[in-house]
Amino acid sequence: MHNAERNRLSLEPLKWNVHLEREAEQWARVLSEKGVLQHADRSTRNGTGENLWMGTAGNWPIETMVGMFLEEKKHYRHDSFPNISRTGSWSDVGHYTQIVWRDTKEVGCAVVTARGNDVLVCRYWPAGNVWGRKAY
User: Fold this and answer.
1) Helix, strand or coil for residue 80?
2) Which residues form the SCP domain (predicted)?
3) C-alpha dist (Å) from residue 89 to 65, 84, 86, 134
4) Which of 71, 105, 76 has the alpha carbon at shortest distance from 88?
5) Which residue in 112, 75, 116 sits closest to 93, CA to CA?
6) What order of strands is seen across the sheet that includes strand 15-16?
7) What kind and span of H or E run contains 2?
8) Residue 126: is the preceding peptide bond cis (ω within 30°)?
9) Are the C-beta atoms of residues 3 and 68 closer than 8 Å to each other?
């Protein structure tokens, strides 16, 4: 789904990175046990970006989870970060722009279930949403 959207925009496809997948899985375990969504500290992410999603366990297919990130494009405005949302809040499109960030080359995602929740974490290298730059 990531690469289908990138292809639509004529962007280079993301490569799957198993190390990012492992890091995403480790963080998803932490979040699923806590039952909250919270970005990992920047220093522990080693220059990676991060998209997070949480919902009731077993009720959401992965296509819906990632689809919610992609749905943010309806608010996207092609301008320099942080002026990238028609709503005035970059966080309303931040998942989408991370997916289509031109300079991002690799992705790894994982879903973990615990305490009644599914948690999806995707890690991106290098991180997108860079101040003063356009997504693509």
Assistant:
1) coil
2) 1-132
3) 21, 8, 8, 15
4) 76
5) 75
6) 15-16, 106-114, 117-125, 49-56
7) helix 2-8
8) yes
9) no
What is the per-residue pLDDT for 135?
98
Mean pLDDT, the chain, whole residue set: 96
pTM higher than 0.85, yes or no? Answer: yes
- Kindly report, residue by residue over 10-58, the tens digit of the pLDDT: 999 999 999 999 999 999 999 998 988 999 998 889 899 999 999 999 9
Neighbour-count burial of 8, counting CB atoms closer than 10 A to its CB (0-12 exposed, 13-18 middle, 19+ buried)? exposed
Q: Which residues lie below 8 Å from residue 126, measured CB to CB, with a gap of 6+?
A: 47, 48, 49, 103, 104, 105
How far is residue 85's CA from residue 27's CA, in Å, rounded to a whole number? 28
User: What average pLDDT score do residues 107-123 get?
Assistant: 96
Tokens of residue 120, six digits: 């999806």
Those residues whose C-beta lies under 8 Å from the C-beta of residue 89, and which sit 6 or more positions away, are none
| Interior/surface letters 85-111, b for 16+ CB within 10 angstroms, e for the rest | beeeebebbbbbbbbbbeebeebbbbb
DSSP label of 106: E
